[in-house]
Amino acid sequence: MAARAMWKGVVHVGTLTVPVKLYSAVQDHSVRFRLLHKTDKQPVKQQLVSSDSREVIEYSEVRKAFPIARGRLVLLEKEELEELEPEDSRDIEITRFVNIGDIDHRWYERAYYLGPDNSTKQYFAVVAALEKKKKEGIARWVMRDKSYVGSLRVEDGYLMLVTLRHAEEIIAADALQAPEGRALQKREIEMAEQLIEALHAEFDPTQFRDDYRDRVMELIETKAAGKKPKVVKFRPKLKETDNVTDALAASLAGMKKKAGSRG
Amino acid sequence: MAEEAEELEQPSGSRSFWTGSITFGLVTVPVALYPATRSHGIGLKMIGPDEAPVQRRYVCPKDEKVLDADDIVRGYEVEKGKFIVVTDDELEAIEPRKSREIDLKVFVDADQIDPIYFERAYFLVPGGGTNKAYRLLAEVMEKKKQAGIATFVMRAKEYLVAILAEDGILRAETLRFADEIRKPEDVGLPKIAKPAPADVKKFETQIAKHAKKVNFHDFLDGYTERLEKLVAAKERKKEDIVNVPEEAAEAEEGGGEVVDLLEVLSRSLGGKTGGRRPGGRTVGASPAKTRRPPRKAAARKTKTKKRA
Question: What is the pTM of this model?
Fold first, then answer.
């Protein structure tokens, strides 16, 4: 079944344009719970409440404020805040093209497919050109009063737009202090390298399944059938490795043995 | 409705989400997980007509009485209006035996993981007595450009996760499971058509013309800066300033125990308190220098549920 487009826009590549439709490329499969009132098992409502009187307040009566010090805030009018919002538009501007790999995982947020809107002529031309030039585009656009930055790339022969985190949202690792300690020994590093090499494989996400989701659904079915689920308390406690060198040596020895017995 | 549940679930930004261990081979490293991102616009608070801070509260659907956490249970809707209540203990009991462990059984080239999989980023900080195994893993993974792949359970949900190293710090990126990724045919995209060579050429010319190095200035939202400017201007003019009692401000923030994310992380990693601004080298010469550090208050409440 075809998915519904979430949004429509026009990609601008220099002087050229490509009309597109946006579709989510991911689908959340986690089990969705609702919060219920314990006594009557009815879904709770969310309300705004005054911290002073505990009275319920309507959203229209609420004003936004920015804290400037502890207990001190500047009130902002609705109109003032609206003025800060980016202007609505249908344009996805490609500000530049960069080499594939220049943007990495630290920035990725959420992936969308772009499908052609009506004509496929320009659409598959830009796909082919991106593939040939081995580039991805840096895109900027405004969608529902929010500005986005994204990477325009090719996935399986189609255009994909991956939203990227804004620079303001990222805490970069180099803003933090890495843990320090006595210099690592050459032998330890070598053994750790060997261990990682021995465990090296191709990335194959199909190897991993969300078994927990199945178990949660099983639990719900058991309870829905009026049966009592078994509840076993189990809190595994893992011990921190005291002697890293010995543990590495033992790991490598264990793996050699396994490989040997297989061959 | 899903978001309702999520909101109660998600702790404020700078508290650790999960503590457990990373295992590779027979080596076990205790770690704690912290979010590596914060959403913009987070500094805004709500003030009621009585000039008191406004809180979001769950109320009984019938009499609108404000409910405490103890009055609320989790339920799954099996049919319209019919819910099966599931307790935390029951959910915990069905966790995999190794749910407190991120067991890195597979290492892959970090650049092999397609961007489509990435979901959310966390920092891992050493949680044990020593940090040697942590440093060793970080050093080797970074040098070899490897990512360790595993699954683990956090807050009643199983995650696929990639552990990566950057500047001596380990990070965890939760990934989508393969069955959460849509294929072009699932979306209903049209069959791939061969474009006219002349059209391709036109795009190639434009791509070549605009090919440049990455500039992380492009990644700035600007909203936060515009907001801060507006606030500073009003503050100077002493316009629309309200004072709220300290207790109210604290109650609104959930106990006042939450401090700046950067500070918490720096402390946990064993370094000095957060002096440097996020985005130092990564963001090049951009916001770190042009913008002042975030106000403590602004960073205090990091809502994590922002999604496009």
Answer: 0.82
